[in-house]
Amino acid sequence: MSDTENQMKVLVIDDEPFVLKVHVRLLTNLGFTDVTPYESARDAMIALEAGGKSVGLILCDLQMPEMDGVEVVRYLVNSSYRGALVLVSGEDQRILQTAERLAKAHALNVLGALHKPASPQQLRQLLEGKLSGGAKSEAATPRAERKIYGADELRVAITDKELVNYYQPKVVLATGKVAGVETLVRWRHPKDGLVFPDQFIKTAEEHGLIDEVTQAVLAAALSQYRQWLSAGLDTHVAVNVSMHNLTTMDFPDFVAKLAAETGVPLSKLVLEVTESKLMSNPLASLDILTRLRLKGIGLSIDDFGTGHSSLAQLRDVPFSELKIDRGFVHGAWQDKALKAIFDASLSLARQLDIKTVAEGVEDRADWNFLRAAKCDLAQGYFIGRPMPGELVPEWISDWEDRDLAHSA
Ligand code: C2E
Ligand code: CA
Ligand code: CA
Asked: How many angstroms is it from 306 CA to the middle of ligand 2?
């Protein structure tokens, strides 16, 4: 960073305190000396009015309760803001597109978009050399639509080690304790930025690359677990496996060998399985799943209720965990049909002695509903977003300070 960049005023706006803290620290580490965090966009806009022309960069979340990113963009246009803008988003591409289009149409200097929480590399790449001139770079512009990637590109990504793991916490509803994390793969694409699994997992499955993807994800997750363990964090780590992985008879031995090499007890590992529409060889999968369970690995039935995960699977496979799909979780407290399906799934799991995880917990109403329903674990944006592995220990200590379990 140049000296002028160092001294410019930077405003960071995000209603999630943890994300806010992480982004402020990343900017400080990049050499910015005047960075102010705002949980409220209104307060930030007031500060902008007061601070006037010296604000050179704004990092702004798009989804906030009292004033969303689109409104902020409108406000910046009206107040003739001349500095740079970085849009920060969760996973909603549509809002991102609208806000970006709006900002560009009004000739705001949009540097690009970040998925939160951003990693140091992502932020550095986005800001590098772009702050002084105000020239827009094509490369930093987020893509308009979600592109699906081909097998050749993906093959290169695997070889070049562009796949990275993010981790999302699962917590115990009754106590608030962190029970584990789920590994979610992302592709750090050299040109397109962070690419999500729905843009390449299917390609991997269809072109015989899924074994390599799973191996890379699993190896990275196990070695991350070792690092957490040396930092004093003892937790469970879950990895998603595709049904296609469960056609190779030596898969259980491969997993056991990898865990032994990394020094991770198999009882700390959970594999999440979604049944694909077509199981080419159900008996082989059953054989493999049973052997995984016999080794002490946790088995989770993912996306329960969506039709891919059928009752027959529940009958045949010794699952230890059932994940109720987010489609039946978020908003179930106010929707009779969702609630009925949620309750039935919960009761089924209880009778089979299987732990329940509710996915897609997006707000406090969801959280309160699940606590009252006595669901075991919860996962979702309300608790924590998927994040790079090195942020997990800090996230946990922040979370424990929040003590949600004992508040209403
Ligand atoms: P999944 O296993 O059901 O993972 C949960 C997905 O929901 C993740 O999307 C996560 O970011 C998202 N999510 C978490 N909390 C919330 C919330 O509160 N609200 C909403 N709306 N969404 C939430 P992601 O990371 O894009 O992954 C999509 C799917 O890709 C995963 O669904 C999983 O089936 C698959 N996947 C991810 N990583 C891997 C992998 O390493 N191997 C394989 N085979 N599949 C993977
Ligand atoms: Ca999963
Ligand atoms: Ca799921």
From this structure: 13
